[in-house]
Amino acid sequence: MRLQSRRPGTIRRSQFLRRKRCFAPIDEDAPSIAVLPFVNMSDDQANEYFADGVAEELLNVLSKIRGLRVASHTSAFSFKGSKVDIPTVAQKLNVSTILEGSVRKAGKRVRITVQLVQVATDSHLWSATYDRELEDIFAVQDDIAQSVVKELRSALLGEKQDSSASAAVKAEVRVAARGRGENAEAYRLYLQGRSLVARRTQASVATGIEHFRQAVSLEPEYALAWAALAYAQTVEAGTGWMPYEEGYGRARKAAERALALEPDLAEGHVALGLIRMGYDWDWPGADASMRRALDLAPGNADVVFAAAGVTGNVGRLDESIALCRRAIALDPLNVHGHRYLGIYSLHADSLEQAEAALKEALELNPLGGMTYRSLGEVYLVQGRFPEALAAFEKESHDGFRLLGLAAAYHALRRKAPSSAALEQLSELPVHAYLNAQANAYCGNVDLAFEWLERAYAQRNAGLCQMKFQPLLRNLHSDPRWQLFLKKMGLAD
Question: What letter does residue 45 receive in the DSSP assignment?
Fold first, then answer.
């Protein structure tokens, strides 16, 4: 069975679904910098998260400075612990300067050493050492950010370093650091929570959430911690580790609290946008949240990725692909960007582009979950069924692997193993949306719609991508398809 090809241009869209936005291209000539993970010089290796967090917080502030191109966290931190030289790092990240440093934390004191290197001349533009009480960490970070911005503009743009320029940079950094707390212990908990959530296991996310809760308990007006709590809770709910209604309900309260404290916090708008998309299916609302986040932090790859998800799910595929490319320019070594580009290229029937992007994702992380699943779908659409089966067999996520095996075996007319995979998948009811896809592809149309209804009752976040999901195309000619899309708010 070869899936029918669909061309996006043949589909009528409502005014919202048609709405497009042009994004300025990445300015390759802008001052550019990568903030490498700071070396942990503390006697206690458990402080590794603190050294990483200090560097990451600097990176996040710098990424919000207009006219400065900052290599994103995932790419910059991919060199952690490696012996790669500075010119190679700069070439891979496409930046002209590198900020590196070290952190030594002992009790309530912290020593931070930093240096800004211009790669082309192998020269130090600026360096400094700070030996302070932990309570002064915020002033240190502000001073580093201000110094970096001034030195970059002076060395690369020829701007004068006078009192007027210093005052302007100080104001920019203050705006970029909005939402930050002032309590050192809450800050420590926030950094540790972020480190835990980034591991993406059920246990680490749950522990990270508890750290964020402790942080906001110590400092109730810590907007960034509230936004991080909201994001972590969307992860917990969206993966099924927490009942959807309860998890997203908690996330909404945290996101709304973050935005009440700091209305112009990009991270808060992203968290609320993910809730509006993943649980509310409020597409205009999600779109508004992501657009606001993009306006506030156009140089933050995580924000760009999130916006690409909303635009792609409602069918503005050209815009979504452009956003994916923008995110990859900011974060070239982030596997998620290449995977998203592959997924939305697949949905747009740009199959060669999809295959190339997904293979790039696998080069960056051969063991990454969900990428083999998407590559297998590309092969199914192309009619390359043995290759599809081989890809699905390598998928590490149980639900996605069983979905793929059911579809690939069906395409190869191997009924017994296809039925066996379907049976195993049906024993995972939390994956109602995956069951719907598998049954749709295998021709079990009535059962597919039953699973879609279960997914709807669950508020399953996977339904966000249903409109252009290739494995569901067998349902398109059924009258129930348009009715379901209408119920989802995705009808043309």
Answer: G
Beta strand pairing call for 97-106 and 109-118:
antiparallel
How many domains does the chain fold into? 4
- Whether the full predicted model's pTM is greater than 0.85, yes or no, is no
pLDDT of residue 360: 95
Asked whether residue 1 is assigned to any structural domain, the reply reads no
Is 470:377 a contact under the CB 8 Å cutoff?
yes
pLDDT digits (tens, 9 = 90+) for 85-99: 889 999 999 999 999
Domain of 391, in residue numbers: 387-492
Q: What is the pLDDT of residue 21?
A: 57
Strands 69-70 and 109-118: unpaired
Which residue in the block uniquely carries the two structure tokens 């942080």? 215
CA separation for the pair 268, 225 (Å, rounded)? 10
What pLDDT digit, counting tens, does each position of 152-196 carry?
Answer: 888 777 778 778 888 988 899 889 889 988 898 999 899 899 889
Give the containing element (helix H, strand E) for 34.
strand 32-35
> Within this chain, do residues 173 and 196 fall inside the same structural domain, yes or no?
no
Question: What is the residue whose two structure tokens read 């240190």?
Answer: 140
Q: Is 466:486 a contact under the CB 8 Å cutoff?
A: no
Q: Are residues 319 and 393 in the same domain?
A: no
Distance (Å, whole) CA 151 – CA 157: 10
Does 15 fall in a domain?
no
CA–CA–CA angle 111, 331, 247 (5° rounding): 85
How far from the centroid of its chain's Cα atoms is residue 136's Cα? 31
Return the bridge partners of 113, or none.
102, 129
Distance between CA 338 and CA 126 in Å, rounded?
35
Q: Is 397 within the bounds of a domain?
A: yes
Are residues 169 and 253 located together in one domain of the fold? no
- Quote the tokens at residue 44: 């206690």
Please state, in angstroms and rounded to a whole number, the distance separating the CA atoms of residues 253 and 226: 9
Tally: H helices and E strands in the chain: 23, 6
Rg over alpha carbons for the chain, rounded to the nearest Å, is 24
List the structure tokens of 485.
Answer: 């899309």
173 with 184, same domain? no
Choose among 201, 203, 36, 12: nearest CA to 115.
36
Here the tokens at position 316 are 């503005």
| CATH classification of the domain holding 208 | 1.25.40.10
Cα–Cα dist 427/434, whole Å: 12
Average pLDDT over residues 142-155: 87
Copy the structure tokens of residue 254.
């945290």
CB 437 within 8 A of CB 444: no
Q: Would you say 131 and 124 are in contact if contact means Cβ atoms under 8 Å apart?
A: no
